[in-house]
Amino acid sequence: MAIAKELGPDTPFTHLSGSEIFKVVEIEIDQPTGSGAARTGRMSLKTTEMETLYDLGSKLIDALTKEGVTAGDVISIDKASGKVSKIGRGFARAKDFDAVGPTTRFVQCPEGELQKRKEVVHTVTLHEIDVINSRAQGFLALFAGDTGEIKGEVREQIDAKVAEWREEGKAEIIPGVLFIDEVHMLDIECFSFLNRALESEAAPVVVMATNRGITTIRGTDYKSPHGVPLDLLDRTLIIATEPYSEHEMMKVQQQQQQQQQQQQQQQQQQQQRRSGRSGRSSGSSSSSRCSRSSSSSAGVAGVAGVAAAVVAAGFRVLQIIELRAEEEDVELEAEAQQLLCRVGLESSLRYALHLITVASLVAKRKKKTSVGLEEVRKVYSLFLDVKRSTQYLVVSSSSSSSSSSSSSSGSGRCSAAAAATGAGVAAAAGLEQQQQQV
């Protein structure tokens, strides 16, 4: 829920009306005496800036007659469908009648041009496009329920068309978010599928949550941190969490009490307004277990010289970091490059490349044009690599076994965010959540 709130409400369909709004000044329809002749007419439309006379066809005459449009009405006409919508009646014609119906609404005369062009934006998923193009009934296939199997040829054609729309500027791909809770329950085949899916260009951002330490991967005899294969775990940024401390729990309870007092005051004010008497409203306090994301206690050491035996490897890592920063349009300072190079040598190159993305987001929040040593240290403390996560699990398991006779405490929870190529949305959401709670 917290991640969903941080990402913001998703609007699956946004429709901006592509209609023209204007005021009818005069309307005249010629009704022929013969039965076979078509009706013709003229209509004068105006805004505050211009006025134009239009010739009417038979279909538009029928639409105007159906809506009961008369001189002085404010209407909108959709040129694509020919639909006429009656918005209201102008204030200038408010005195034409002594009495009007309850549904009559008076509005101001529209402003601007008579004919306006507006964009219509539709937010759809690639799966919905695949379903529409894989069935004979088209758009109605979305409401059938059982979509069935979609051929690979259809998906390839849709991907090619969407790529063409992106190049033309007609479409924009927004990576989705896939949240997998209790990820340790997946077997090795599911992890293989996820590993393959994350390599595609339109891959979503995958957020995985688990509360397991070093455990066996389902379907194998191998043990791994969090029950996730190491090749997939190496693609992730790991966020360690721990229960609230006693001081923080007191602050949470105080905030809840303040909110309850405010609600009680609002209820009392409403009762005083309604009955003139003050009523007492009591609220029950409820305690909830919370967990907060805490930054890792491991700090990044200062920039040190690379040993002579790994000079060549360090130079190659530094080149790759520079190329990745140039590809993502991120300006790195010299000290930040050296620190990322050292992180890549000690941990993994993929982890160092992930830090470039989240460090650039931290720099943008600070309104900085370049990523410095401070930003790299901050994201290094927030997001763990595989080695530090394993050490954390070993220490926590040993401490829990030694204190088995103590009272039960809230168990830690570990979430791993695996980002698609070039997408740092999950890292941004996790980073914002960390900063707010820290």
Automatic annotation (TrEMBL):
EC number(s) stated in the UniProt entry for this protein: 3.6.4.12
Xref: Gene3D superfamilies: 1.10.8.60, P-loop containing nucleotide triphosphate hydrolases, RuvB-like helicase, domain II
Taxonomic lineage from the root: Eukaryota, Sar, Alveolata, Apicomplexa, Conoidasida
The protein, known as: RuvB-like helicase
Region Disordered, annotated ranges: 248-297
Domain TIP49 P-loop residue range list: 24-246
Enzyme class at the top of the EC tree: hydrolase
Main location as per UniProt: nucleus
